[in-house]
Write a structure and sequence with these properties.
388 residues, alpha+beta, Rossmann fold, Dna Ligase, domain 1, 3 domains, 4-stranded parallel beta sheet, globular, binds adenosine-5'-triphosphate, binds magnesium ion
Length: 388
């Protein structure tokens, strides 16, 4: 029996909103939680028992976390590999360092997917401005250039219209190795969530449908309104990757669906993911509870979607001119819920999400987006009202 039972302590590398939501789920199950984060006031700090305030490449701090934990997991990819290895000598680290090593580098990740027979779109890895120009020639007049390390939420990447702009693009991305991808004609973006225990027991959630705005997730809905054939192929790809990589914990695979039904893998995230926050609404086991179960080697819960649910992300711009948003405008709508991460607002920063439940995926999305619009309108109206 290897289960880490409730009453034990879960260590989380990273204390952002994902760590906070895992912490809440872990506490509901009766665990103690310690998080490691550079910011002592990180989003998870309000709900964790303790914060180890340290950089993600501080191996001594990772050891300190592991000493106080029965099992350690991650909520962010950019943890130093030496930190993970040092922690793993003291407590199980799930997923393992080999998984984080793979996903920390886009080129390495794409090569692995390609070499292991998983579908990826055309891409080229480049190490100089002239290699970038050559790749752009091959990719065609619309390409994405993404630095191999460090990007998230559309940062560390740009759109390239042809070789003429390559030198400037190379400079803008910091003169670092990049992956060039042909811009694909996306019919839809979906993601697949897989949870896996140490012995290989696996559950796969129905795919989510994700809508991005300027490279950042704007809303997501489960189940994705896609045909059974695409759903079956997508879930097989996600489960296949999780098994081949021997992931313990969660693995989210972001995928592109093209007009002809082709599926390609965009990227992997071995942790809870923004595109499955709606699992807290109408799915029997939320991704956060499932993460705890998987890394603690407990029986996995059902991924059944009882009713369609959507989330719309809330960014820092909702705090118009520093005003507190009128959340009451969303809460006045039946079937809508508010989830805030307790972070201080900055433009573009993910601050929370609105959840909505509908009879169909489209209805759930429409409700979540409408709730967000009403909050914005009400906040604006309150700001415009003359002082009493
Ligand atoms: N090759 C491509 N063809 C078409 N669209 C693309 C391509 N690459 C990226 N995109 C668009 O940009 C979005 C963000 O890309 P990607 O996932 O690589 O960036 P990211 O910074 O890691 O984002 P995140 O952290 O939000 O997942 C994708 O979800 C998609 O909408
Ligand atoms: Mg992405």
């Amino acid at each position: 029996m290897t289960s880490v039972l409730p009453g034990s302590t879960l260590g989380i590398l990273g204390g952002g909103q994902l760590g906070r939501m895992v912490t809440l789920a872990a506490r509901t199950l009766g665990y103690h939680v310690i998080v490691l984060d550079p910011d002592p006031h990180c989003a998870a700090s309000a709900v964790a028992d303790r914060v180890v305030a340290a950089r993600f490449d501080d191996a001594h701090a990772a050891v300190e976390l592991a000493r106080a934990s029965d099992v350690v997991t991650v909520e962010i990819e950019k943890i130093g590999i030496p930190s993970l290895e040092a922690a793993a000598r003291i407590a199980p680290v799930r997923p393992g360092a080999h998984v984080l090593y793979l996903v920390q580098d886009r080129a390495r990740q794409k090569d692995w997917l390609n070499d292991n027979g998983f579908p990826v779109g055309p891409y080229w890895t480049v190490h100089s401005a002239s290699e970038l120009a050559d790749a752009s020639e091959l990719a065609g007049p619309d390409a994405f250039v993404k630095s191999t390390t460090g990007g998230y939420d559309g940062r560390g990447q740009l759109r390239l219209a042809g070789p003429a702009a390559a030198a400037e693009a190379w400079r803008q991305l910091g003169s670092r190795p990049c992956v060039v991808e042909r811009a694909l004609p996306l019919e839809r973006e979906i993601s697949v969530l897989v949870a896996r225990r140490p012995g290989g027991d696996t559950v796969v959630y129905p795919p989510a449908w994700n809508h991005h705005h300027e490279g950042v997730l704007d809303w997501s809905v489960i189940p994705a309104p896609i045909g059974a054939d695409i759903a079956a192929r997508a879930t097989a790809i996600g489960a296949g990757i999780a098994a081949s990589l021997d992931v313990v914990g969660l693995l989210v695979t972001e995928m592109f669906v093209l007009g002809d039904g082709t599926i390609t893998v965009n990227e992997l995230a071995p942790r809870p993911h923004n595109s499955f926050h709606h699992t807290e609404l109408t799915v029997i086991t939320s991704q956060f509870e499932q993460a705890v179960r998987a890394v603690c080697d407990l029986p996995l819960g059902s991924p059944e979607v009882v009713k369609p649910a959507a989330i719309a992300n809330l960014f820092g711009d909702m705090w118009l001119g520093g005003a507190t948003p009128r959340w009451d405008a969303a809460l006045a709508m039946p079937n809508v819920r508010v989830h805030l991460y307790g972070k201080s607002p900055r433009p573009g920063r993910k601050m929370g999400h609105l959840g909505a439940v509908g009879d169909t995926p489209d209805a759930a999305v429409a409700l979540a987006v409408e709730a967000r619009r009403r909050v914005r309108d009400a906040t604006r109206a309150a700001g415009a009202a003359p002082a009493a």
